[in-house]
Design a protein that fits this description.
By secondary structure, the chain is an alpha+beta fold. It has helices at residues 2-8, 54-57, 59-68, 164-173, 262-265, 271-281, and strands at residues 47-52, 73-83, 86-97, 104-112, 123-130, 133-140, 143-149, 174-181, 187-194, 206-218, 224-235, 238-249. It has a 12-stranded antiparallel β-sheet, with helices on both faces.
């Protein structure tokens, strides 16, 4: 199961390289008086605005939605609940969405240790949707179970695939935001003073959620690249911290092919074969 868990938790990471150029050494300019140096920027520090109303930031969710429209992408999420003795819950999900939104594949993996007895086997739920059917593969305690819906609703069982609705709610849930605008066009938003508690998802045994904060990073083109929420709570009277992070990557280059267990779900190869394929492919 450790191999399965590690395979499920491998997330796509994008690296952006940077480079520079230098002039050849030893070269002497013959007419220095004719060289006009480039103007030196007078202000390269970011612009900071305090106390911005979240409702004024709502259009950012629409810009994010527009940037992902008609393009494939991968949405990555993770929620970690940490207590006095370590991690109590570690849930991750990965959603690969096709450009036309007719197909997507979501994988959710959760490891819960509420009993403080050490890591439990990772439970995993795979949902693959295409227009004519939705196929689900559930792995619980090492057992594999399939479900097939041959008459799925339009758009499938999942909604808000690009998280635009979630971002809209998040931006409007806090009393004020600190907005840092960098010279390259990047925005970093920090929310304080939670006014709408529905954005803080705290199901039992979580209780007494408080001190929520949020951070949203927006690229120059308007796409949200990272959104996070942090808050404190209690479990049976014990203090815990909760962190949820969502990221959006591989825009325009996300594959949404049928998963390797697709035929098994429809009555093809055995579940054992599908499980072994899952170990090697991670999907």
């Amino acid at each position: 199961m450790r191999v399965l868990a590690r395979a499920a938790l491998c997330l796509a990471v994008l690296f952006a390289g940077c480079g520079g150029a230098t002039s050849p050494g030893g070269r002497v300019a013959t007419a220095p008086e004719t060289v006009t140096p480039a103007p030196v920027p007078t202000d390269r520090s970011p612009t900071v605005r305090e106390g911005v109303d979240g409702e004024r930031l709502a259009p950012l969710a629409e810009r994010h939605e527009a940037r992902l429209a008609d393009r494939s992408f991968t949405a990555l999420g993770r929620r970690v609940i940490t207590g006095p003795v370590g991690i109590l819950l570690d849930a991750r999900w990965e959603r690969r969405v096709a450009p036309d939104r007719d197909a997507y594949h979501e994988v959710r993996t959760g490891t819960e240790t509420w009993g403080w007895d050490g890591p439990a086997p990772a439970d995993r739920r795979h949902t693959y949707h295409e227009p004519e059917r939705t196929v689900i593969r559930q792995v619980t305690g090492g057992e594999v179970r399939y479900e097939v819906d041959r008459d799925p609703p339009s758009g499938g069982p999942l909604s808000d695939l690009d998280d635009a609705d979630h971002l809209r709610s998040l931006l409007g849930a806090f009393e004020s935001w600190r907005v840092v605008s960098h010279p390259n066009g990047t925005l970093v938003l920090s929310g304080r003073g939670l006014e709408r508690s529905e954005v803080v998802w705290a199901p039992p045994p979580l209780a007494d959620s408080r001190n929520a904060t949020a951070e949203v990073r927006v690229e120059p083109g308007g796409r949200v690249v990272r959104a996070s929420v942090r808050f404190e709570a209690t479990v049976d009277g014990m203090p815990v911290s909760v962190v949820e992070v969502r990221r959006y990557v591989a825009v325009g280059s996300t594959p949404t092919d049928r998963p390797p267990w697709y035929d098994a779900a429809l009555g093809g190869p055995s579940a054992d074969v599908a499980t072994r394929a899952d170990v090697t492919t991670g999907g």
